L-fucose:H+ symporter permease
Amino acid sequence: MSDRGKFVYDGMKLPFTLIVICFAAWGIAANMTDPLVKVFSKIFSMSTLQASFVQFAYYGAYFCLALPAAFINRRYSYKTGVLVGLGCAIAGAFLFYPAAQSMTFGFFLLALFTLAGGLSILETSANPFVIAMGPEYNATRRLNFAQAFNPVGTNIGVFLSAALILPRLNPATPEERAAMDPEALRAVQSAELQAVMTPYVGFACVLLLIWVAIYMTKMPTEREAAADGPRELHFGASVRRLMKRRRYVFGVIAQFFNVAAQTCVWTFTIQYVIEAIGGTEAEAGRYLQISLLIFLVSRFVMVWLMGYIRPSVLLCIMALMGAVLCLFAVANPNMSGVWAVVLVSATLSLMFPTIYGVALEGLGEDTKFGAAGLVMAILGGALMPLVHGAIMDARGAAVSYIVPALCFLVVMSYGLFDLIAKRRHPRVAAPAE
C-alpha cells in the first residue's frame, strides 16, 4: 500500500502519541530549571555567573550523553534509547531529595547533570524516531507537530516553578542573609531547598509512569531498520560522511546558537523584568509564564504555516525578528523592553525542530549519529548563558541581551544558506499531503 499522504505509518499512532508525551516531559524539566539560576543565586548568595553553572551542568550533560545515545540507537533501537533516557532522567530527578538534605550547590548540579543526561538520551532518540514514523517528505512538519507539545511542558514547568518554588523564597536580601546567625540562615536555606526539591521528585514519579507505558507498548521497528540499514557500528565512516555534508555541519552550528539564544532569553527573563520595572521574583516569573504561553501558541501556528511556506523561509523571518526584538530590549530597559523579551518566544517557536529536520534531510544510515550531533549542539545552552551572565554582572540585564541577538543572526544565516542551496540543487517536488 502506498504511503502517499500519510502523516505517520500504520501501527505507529500509539507509539507516536507516547513519544509526543516525552516531548512535553523534557519541556517541563528544562523550564523548571531556567528559574533556578535566580533561585540559587539568592539561596546561596552567589553571583549570576556562578549560578549560571546550573545551565552549564544541564546543557553540558546533553553534550556528553548524546553520542552514547546514538550508539544505543544504532545498536538496538529508538525505543531502547527512549527507555534508557527516561530511566536516567528518573534517577536524576529523584536525586533532588538527597541534594536538598545535603544543602550543597554541588549536589544539585550532580542531580541536574544526571537528569539532563537522561533527557539527552531521550531527545537524541525521540526526535529521529518521530522522523522515522512517517514519509520523509513531510518529516520536518511532523517533527514540528511533535515539538509543538514541548511548550505544553515548558508552560507546566514554569507554572510549577512559579507556584511551588519562587513564592517560597525568603524575601531577605543578600545583606540581611549575611547578617543572620548560621542556624537561622541554615533554616531559611533548608526551607527554600525543600521547595526546589518537591516538584522534581513529583516529576520523577510522572516519568516512571511514562517509562512503564512505553515499555509495554509494541513499537514496529521494520521501517526504522529499512531506513537505517544494518545495525553494525561504523562510527568513523559515518562521521566522515557527515562532515562532508555542508547543510548538516552548518545545521549543527545553527542549533548551537539557537539553543544558546533560547536558554539565554528564558533564563534571564526574570532578572531583566526586575531590573526594568522592579517587583519580586514571583511577579517577574509571570512574564516568563506569558512568554511560554506565546511560545506554545506560536508553535502550532508555525506548523500550520509550514503547509504554505517553506520552513527555511519561516526560519529566516523568525530569526531576524528575534534579533530585532532583543536589540530593542537592549535599547529600552522599561515596560516596552519587557514585552519585547516576552515576544521573543514567538520567534523561537519553530527553530529547534526546523533546524533539526532540515539538517537531517537525506542522511539515511547516518541519521542516528547525525541526530546525536544536533543534540550535542545543545552545548550552546551550557556555554552562552555564562557569557550572558558575565555581561549581566558587569553591565546589567538589558545590555546582556546583545548575546541572544547575535545568536539569532547566525540562525538566520542558516535559513538563507538552505534556501540558496535548494535553489541551486532543487529536489523532486514532494507529493501533496
Summary: Residues 85 and 118 are 4 Å apart (CA to CA). The chain has one domain: 13-226+235-424.
